[in-house]
Amino acid sequence: MPGEQGVWVLIFGDMLLFTMLFGAYLNSRSHNRALFAESQLALNRTLGVANTLVLLCSSMLIVLAVRAMRSTQFRHLAARLTLAGALVGSCFVIVKVIEYRTKVAAGITPNTNEFFLYYFALTGLHLVHVIVGLIVLLVLWRFARRTETTRTQVAVFEGGGCFWHMVDLLWLIIFPLVFLVH
After folding, report:
1. What cellular component terms from Gene Ontology apply here (predicted)?
2. 34-45 pLDDT, tens per residue?
């Protein structure tokens, strides 16, 4: 398993937290199908798709960065790929801020109804994870800029990459669950 053991404890803990939130969301939706279906129509699926593509592209760049970090031949590309992954990933934040501004301007807040409480809670908690992940990527970028790295530093780099992929995976569940599935 790549990375440090502590990172996997964090990743599985986060996944457990989100699993419980998904379960609560699905339970609430099962009791209020009409409200959830009607409220879901107010979401901008195009922005959701854009954010999905942003995170998938960013994750691909981080996969390449981890491979470059492990390689002697392509090691020099690790910093560029990591920075590119962070820059692409930061587009998620921009799109989400636009999405939130649009909702609030239309009078839609967590107090609007139960669906939007879950919408803002799930996507907001995920957004916090994206921001933390971007900070992690910037730390990894600093590691990748070093000419010499230890095995431990490479393991930390791999663990940071795994955290970023978890953030991506969570969105791949949140997007269809909240935006698409009735």
Report:
1. plasma membrane
2. 999 999 999 999
